Structure formats: C-alpha cells, structure tokens
Amino acid sequence: MTQTLILNDRVPDFQLPATSGKTFRLSDHLGKTLVIYFYPKDSTPGCTTQGVQFRDSYTQFQQHNADIYGVSRDSLKSHE
C-alpha cells in the first residue's frame, strides 16, 4: 500500500527489518525526534558524504533527543 504524505502529516506506524536481526518500529520511538534519510546505494561518493556528515554530527543530534536512521535498497547483510 502506497500512501502520499505531505509536510506535517502524521506518519502512520510502520516496521522494517533492521540490522543485527532487529526490527525498526516507528512506534518504538514515540517522543523522540527522528531523522530518517534515504539513499540509493552504499559506497557511492554522495551517499558516503551524507552518511559521514550524519555520523560526525551524531552528538549534536543526541543533544536534541534525535536519532538518525538511514534507509537504502542495499541488503541488510551488506550493512552488518
């Protein structure tokens, strides 16, 4: 099912498989600010730069009670 969201829409709960055999559930993060970024492929110059910038700024995001998650089409195994 595809749903179109616009700015400030409430995002419906969803779950996705994550690394380490875990499952990401949006509802597990109630009360937190989430930064969910999407990138097309691992190890490409643009995507790597983006990921490095999030990594390097991680402490600042934590100070604002924010967690960062990246989503790509690559396999979970490639992220382990």
Rounded radius of gyration (Å): 14 Å
Question: Terminal Cα separation, in Å?
Answer: 28 Å
What portion of residues belong to β-strands?
Answer: 15-25%
The residue fraction in helices comes out at 25-40%
Structurally, how many domains make up the residues? 1
Order of strands across the main sheet:
1-2
- Could you tell me the mean pLDDT? 86
What is the count of helical runs? 3
Q: What is the N-to-C succession of helices and strands?
A: EEEHHEH
Polypeptide structure, described:
By secondary structure, the chain is an alpha+beta fold. The mean pLDDT is 86. The chain has 3 helices and 4 strands, in the order βββααβα. The chain has one domain (18-73). It has helices spanning 45-56, 58-63, 76-79; strands spanning 15-17, 23-25, 33-38, 66-71. It has a two-stranded antiparallel sheet with strand order 1-2.
Which characteristics define this entry?
80 residues, alpha+beta, two-stranded antiparallel sheet, two-stranded parallel ribbon, 3 helices
Question: Could you give the topology of this structure?
Answer:
Layout: E1 15-17, E2 23-25, E3 33-38, H1 45-56, H2 58-63, E4 66-71, H3 76-79
